[in-house]
Amino acid sequence: MKEKPWSGRFSKETDSLVERFSESVSVDKRLYCEDIEGSIAHAQMLCRAGILTEKETESIIEGLNSIRKDIEEGAFLFDQALEDVHMNIEAELTERIGEAGKKLHTARSRNDQVATDFRMYVRGCLAEMCRALKAIMESLVEQADRHVDTIVPGMTHLQHAQPVSLAHHLLAYVEMFFRDYSRIVDTVKRLNESPLGSAALAGTPHAIDREMTAAALGFDRPCRNSMDAVSDRDFALEAVFDASIIMMHLSRMAEEIIIWNSSPFSFIDLEDAFCTGSSIMPQKKNPDVAELVRGKVGGVYGNLVALMTMMKALPLAYNRDMQEDKPPVIASMDTALSCLEVMRGLVAGLKVNSEALSESLNRGFITATDVADYLVEKGVSFREAHHITGEMVASLIRQGRTLSDLTLEEFRSFSASFDEGILSVLSVERSVDRRRSFGGTARDKVRKALGDARERLETLGKNC
Predict the structure, then answer these.
(1) Is the Cβ–Cβ distance between 112 and 196 less than 8 Å?
(2) In this structure, are residues 274 and 331 in contact, taking their beta carbons and an 8 Å threshold?
């Protein structure tokens, strides 16, 4: 068994129950690449500072790269008695290269080492999230481009409200995901400071160059305060918060897909490859992907609460409680990324049922607001126009008729302000195209919004 790095202070070996209880390597071995990169940068800096010789540094780097190769090939055995990924790698390095391996930990602690590794890991996850966000936005834009002229019932309270272009509806989600992307970019700006060299909490007496290691590891600068550097987990909280909002947006979209795909609506049909069937009912084609996305949101929300609760009463600086930061962060990053990827495929393959949409548009008095707006254009106050149109709808409901059933004379029985122009107002296409205000659903405005979305998508990737 490899010796624990802190064994000199203790006269008894750690109880096996404590080893099992306190180990984190089963989770944090995911950080092996960041740990090795951080150690290589640290060794190179120690060499420049004169703390390591060039020969020792070369030996360390070769040893670390050989360990990385073994891990990637599945040939490395992680030992839970060594607690975490950092000590596993250091112990193996020392076994492979001897005394030089023992010098690597000069001027650092596991406290700043893990904080550095974890920031790098989260930064990498957020970069993957940005790529996945861009991909799902591209799928939404492609679908929107095919459906500018497809009219759907826009809803409030899950009831028919006003007709909108399906492209306009899809672009609403694009806007949500653009904001999600920008939140990640902002998170990375705050995350991207290097804790390495802060040591346990107070810094180090060795003449190290923290700017050098920060630059080598892709950070913008070193953290300014050594105590904050080792005890800060704001970046982890922000990352899971970002993931939580992404999951909320995905869940809203999943809910609409589930509703629109349901038998009472039948607005859309989903690709077979993204659905499953029933073990007993042979006719079933279930939107399980969307339902699972909707269900997975709770886990990410719970992870955010767990992290905030873990951090809420910790005194400065590092406390072992903070070992519990990785499971919820890793799980949240994995969940959000997989949900983005699978929902992109679901969106790309959905088909629109034009017949069901057309039938639905004939229900629910969806152009009633256009009737009220028509009266306003004739000089009637909006409140009066609203009242007149409401009375008209109530009368038609009693009769089992729709607005398109009314003759001009019948319209005029409700208000003398109606003239023959009202008969052309009732078209859902006209209703859509009249809403020409910025951000509205008029089809020419939607085409412009599509072009704008494409331009914005082309700029993404340059800042995340």
Answers:
(1) yes
(2) no
Which residues, including other chains, have CB under 8 Å from residue 237's CB and lie 6 or more apart?
304, 307, 308, 311
* DSSP, res 11: S
Mean pLDDT in residue range 390-400 = 95
Q: What is the pTM of this model?
A: 0.93
d(CA 450, CA 365): 29
Is residue 61 within 8 A of residue 40, CB to CB? The reply is: yes
> Residue 172 corresponds to which amino acid?
A
* Count of other CB atoms within 10 angstroms of residue 178: 17
Place of tokens 């290097």: 194
Q: Are 332 and 276 in contact (CB under 8 A)?
A: no
Instruction: Specify the pairing of strand 159-165 against strand 151-156.
Output: antiparallel
205 DSSP assignment? S
Q: What is the pLDDT of residues 288-338, one digit of tens each?
A: 999 999 999 999 999 999 999 999 999 999 999 999 999 999 999 999 999
Q: Residue 436 is encoded by which pair of tokens?
A: 């020409």
Q: Please, which pLDDT band fits residue 15 given cuts at 50, 70 and 90?
A: confident
What residues are annotated to the active site? 157, 278
Q: How far is CA 331 from CA 238, 297, 334, 337, in A?
A: 14, 12, 5, 10
Tell whether the model's pLDDT for residue 8 goes beyond 80.
no
SS (H, E, C) 76-108: CCCCHHHCCHHHHHHHHHHHHHCHHHHHCCCCC
Q: What is the full DSSP assignment across 311-378?
A: HTTPPSS--GGGGGGHHHHHHHHHHHHHHHHHHHHHHHH-EE-HHHHHHHHTSS-TTHHHHHHHHHHT
Cβ atoms 177, 131 nearer than 8 A: no
Can you tell me the distance from the alpha carbon of 199 to that of 222, in angstroms, rounded to the nearest whole number?
Answer: 13
What is the band of 193 on the pLDDT scale with cuts at 50, 70, 90? very high
Contact criterion met (CB below 8 Å) for 141 and 173: no
As a whole number of angstroms, the distance between CA 442 and CA 464 comes to 33
* pLDDT tens digit sequence for 231-282: 999 999 999 999 999 999 999 999 999 999 999 999 999 999 999 988 898 8
Helices and strands in the chain, H and E counts: 19, 6
